[in-house]
C-alpha cells in the first residue's frame, strides 16, 4: 500500500506515494516498512531507524531521522493496531499450489494440509492434524493427532510435536482506546522451529507481531507450556510443564525452567541459568550458570536459607 492510503485509513493527511510493504520494529524496519514509537525509552532506536515512516507524537517528532516520514498522532500504538489489519494475510488461501508431500511420509485420514505447504520425507502426520497454508515441515518429523500449525510457520527435521499443541496462534496483543475499547493488533509474523525439537502435548506457541517467534534446534518442551509472541528459545533449553513466557522473552542456550515458572516480557535470561519451580523472573538475568528460585527472585541458596528462617519463626 502507499503511505498516503495508510495515512488516510487512520485519518491523517499525508501526501506520499511511498510504497509500504509491512510493519516492523524501530530497529529492524527497512526503507519500505512502517514503524512506531510509544515509549520514550526507545528514543535512541527512533534516531537510528531506517523505516520509511514512523507513527510518533508531536513531542517526539523532532527525533525522527531526516529520511523517515513522521506520521504525527496522539496515540501511535493505537494507530499501529488499526493499521496492522491492513497487512494481515488471509485466514485461509483459496488459490495456490497443492501441498507437496515427500516420499515415505504417512498422512492419516482427516488431515488438512493447506495451499503451498511442503512436507518433507519420512514424516508421520496423524489424524486430525491441521497444517495451514505456506507451512514447511522438514524430514522425519512426527505430528501427533490434533496438532494445529497455522499458516506461514516452519518446522525443521527430526521434530516431534505431541497431541493438541498449537503452533502459530495469535499473540496476545491489544491497544486501548480512551474509552477502554480493545483494538486487536494483528499478529503478522510467524513461528520457526529448528531441528531435533520435541514439544509436549497441549502447548501453545504464539506467532510474532512482526518477524518470528523462534525455537532453536535441540530444545525440549514439556506438556502445557505457553510461549508468547516474539520469544526466542535458544538451543538446548528445557521448559518443564506449565512454564509461561511473556512476549519478547529471550532464553539464551541451555536455560532450564522448572514447572510453573514464568517470565515478564521483554527480558533475557543468561546461558546455563536454572529457574526453580514457580520462580518468577521480572528482570533480565545477565550472569550465566546461576540457579534462581522464588518470587521475588533470589539466588537458590539464599532462597533456601530464607525459607529456613521463616520456618524457624513458626516454631
TrEMBL record:
GO terms for biological process: lipid A biosynthetic process. It comes from the Bacteria. Its EC number is 2.3.1.191. Gene3D superfamilies: Hexapeptide repeat proteins, MurE/MurF, N-terminal domain. Pathway: Bacterial outer membrane biogenesis; LPS lipid A biosynthesis. Homotrimer. NCBIfam families: lipid_A_lpxD, PRK00892.1. Belongs to the transferase hexapeptide repeat family. LpxD subfamily. It is an enzyme of class 2 (transferase). The active site is at residue 229. Keywords: Acyltransferase, Lipid A biosynthesis, Lipid biosynthesis, Lipid metabolism, Repeat, Transferase. This is UDP-3-O-acylglucosamine N-acyltransferase. Pfam families: Hexapep, LpxD. GO terms for cellular component: membrane. It catalyses: a UDP-3-O-[(3R)-3-hydroxyacyl]-alpha-D-glucosamine + a (3R)-hydroxyacyl-[ACP] = a UDP-2-N,3-O-bis[(3R)-3-hydroxyacyl]-alpha-D-glucosamine + holo-[ACP] + H(+). Residues 18-86 form the UDP-3-O-[3-hydroxymyristoyl] glucosamine N-acyltransferase non-repeat region domain. The gene is lpxD.
Amino acid at each position: 500500500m502507499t503511505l498516503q492510503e495508510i495515512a488516510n485509513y487512520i485519518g491523517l493527511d499525508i501526501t506520499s506515494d511511498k510504497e509500504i510493504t509491512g510493519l516492523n520494529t524501530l530497529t529492524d524496519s527497512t526503507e519500505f516498512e512502517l514503524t512506531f514509537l510509544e515509549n520514550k525509552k526507545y528514543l535512541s532506536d527512533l534516531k537510528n531507524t531506517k523505516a520509511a515512516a514512523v507513527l510518533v507524537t508531536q513531542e517526539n517528532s523532532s527525533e525522527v531521522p531526516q529520511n523517515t516520514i513522521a506520521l504525527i498522532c496522539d496515540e501511535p500504538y493505537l494507530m499501529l493496531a488499526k493499521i496492522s489489519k491492513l497487512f494481515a494475510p488471509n485466514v485461509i488461501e483459496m488459490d495456490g499450489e497443492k501441498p507437496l508431500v515427500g516420499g515415505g511420509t504417512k498422512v492419516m485420514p482427516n488431515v488438512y494440509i493447506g495451499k503451498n505447504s511442503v512436507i518433507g520425507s519420512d514424516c508421520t502426520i496423524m489424524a486430525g492434524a491441521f497444517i495451514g497454508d505456506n507451512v514447511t515441515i522438514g524430514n522425519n518429523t512426527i505430528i501427533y493427532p490434533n496438532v494445529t500449525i497455522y499458516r506461514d510457520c516452519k518446522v525443521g527435521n527430526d521434530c516431534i510435536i505431541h497431541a493438541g499443541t498449537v503452533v502459530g496462534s495469535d499473540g496476545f496483543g491489544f491497544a486501548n482506546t480512551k474509552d477502554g475499547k480493545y483494538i486487536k493488533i494483528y499478529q503478522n509474523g510467524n513461528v520457526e522451529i529448528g531441528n531435533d525439537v520435541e514439544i509436549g502435548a497441549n502447548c501453545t506457541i504464539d506467532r510474532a507481531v512482526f518477524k518470528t517467534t523462534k525455537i532453536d534446534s535441540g530444545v525440549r518442551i514439556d506438556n502445557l507450556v505457553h510461549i508468547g509472541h516474539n520469544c526466542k528459545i535458544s538451543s538446548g533449553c528445557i521448559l518443564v510443564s506449565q512454564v509461561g513466557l511473556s512476549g519478547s522473552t529471550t532464553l539464551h542456550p541451555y536455560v532450564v525452567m522448572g514447572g510453573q515458572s514464568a517470565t515478564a516480557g521483554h527480558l533475557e535470561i543468561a546461558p546455563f541459568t536454572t529457574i526453580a519451580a514457580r520462580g518468577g523472573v521480572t528482570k533480565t538475568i545477565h550472569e550465566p550458570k546461576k540457579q534462581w528460585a522464588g518470587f521475588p527472585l533470589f539466588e537458590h541458596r539464599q532462597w533456601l536459607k530464607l525459607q529456613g528462617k521463616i520456618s524457624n519463626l513458626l516454631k
